[in-house]
């Protein structure tokens, strides 16, 4: 196959990337790995790249973000190329559909509606437009359209938001806190008296209501848990470093020693951030 000059034109923009993808998938001259892929095998990479974008933003790693956004864009190009080969649609159809959707959902920017609205009113209008779109797609139920393959924590959050739109919601966070106490008691009972299936069911109920509490507090649970995961990773690495300075690995230490080092690390971080621990607020080593 003669080389397309677009491939080596660094200023060719989107068309260059599309041509690279076409070449990678060419049955005769492309990359064997890329040729073998399908929607199902690429989907996990798409999800992974989206999380890497979120991670770069969370760390404010702006130099990395450029590359991560490129990786995510490439996933869209990959899926669109496979769709075009199968006769479903092409990349330009994706662009057109997205552009049409944004124009339709922002009549106060691209239409005749007034921009003189609160953010709350704009959110309400946005949801009304989306509800009309779901109706056009013959989605009857309030929960229709919440993707089943979302991460479970994120899907719980979206399901609850959808239910709340039609009035199925706790009045305020105090009711959710009471429900957490109830679910925790049921989990305690399940631990002592029920089988593994029932235990998983009760544990899921507790997680679900904790997600609900986050929603009432204005906290996105997926983001909150990512933040806590990062904090745990950072602090445990410091514990490992202090053990290494003593010539030991964690498996050569004791729970008491690691717990003490964890408290030291936590105290130092709080002091550096001007955050003093509350009286009686000492937590276990594995908690935030």
What's the layout of helices and strands?
Layout: H1 14-24, H2 32-36, H3 39-58, H4 62-85, H5 91-105, H6 107-110, H7 119-136, H8 152-165, H9 173-193, H10 196-217, H11 221-245, H12 255-272
Your description of this structure?
One of its GO terms (molecular function) is nucleoside triphosphate diphosphatase activity. The protein is globular. Helix 8 packs across helix 10. The protein has 12 helices and no strands. The protein folds into 4 domains: 5-102, Helix Hairpins (Orthogonal Bundle); 106-140; 141-217, Helix Hairpins, CATH 1.10.287.1080; 221-272. It has 288 residues and is mostly helical. The model has no long low-confidence stretch (mean pLDDT 89). It has helices spanning 14-24, 32-36, 39-58, 62-85, 91-105, 107-110, 119-136, 152-165, 173-193, 196-217, 221-245, 255-272.
Count the beta strands: 0
The helical percent reads 55-70%
Shape designation: globular
* Biggest pleated-sheet summary: none
- Supply the CATH superfamily name of the largest domain: MazG-like
Note poorly predicted spans: none
Using the coordinates shown, work out and report the CATH topology of the largest domain.
Answer: Helix Hairpins
Put simply, the count of helices is 12
Mean pLDDT: 89
Order of helices and strands: HHHHHHHHHHHH
Structural class call reads: mainly alpha
Total number of distinct structural domains: 4
Second CATH tier, the architecture of the largest domain? Orthogonal Bundle
Q: Nearest-angstrom radius of gyration?
A: 25 Å
| CATH uppermost class of the largest domain | Mainly Alpha
- The percentage of residues in β strands lies in under 5%
N-end to C-end Cα span: 58 Å
Pfam family, one: MazG
GO molecular function: nucleoside triphosphate diphosphatase activity
Domain NTP pyrophosphohydrolase MazG-like: 37-110, 176-236
EC number: 3.6.1.9
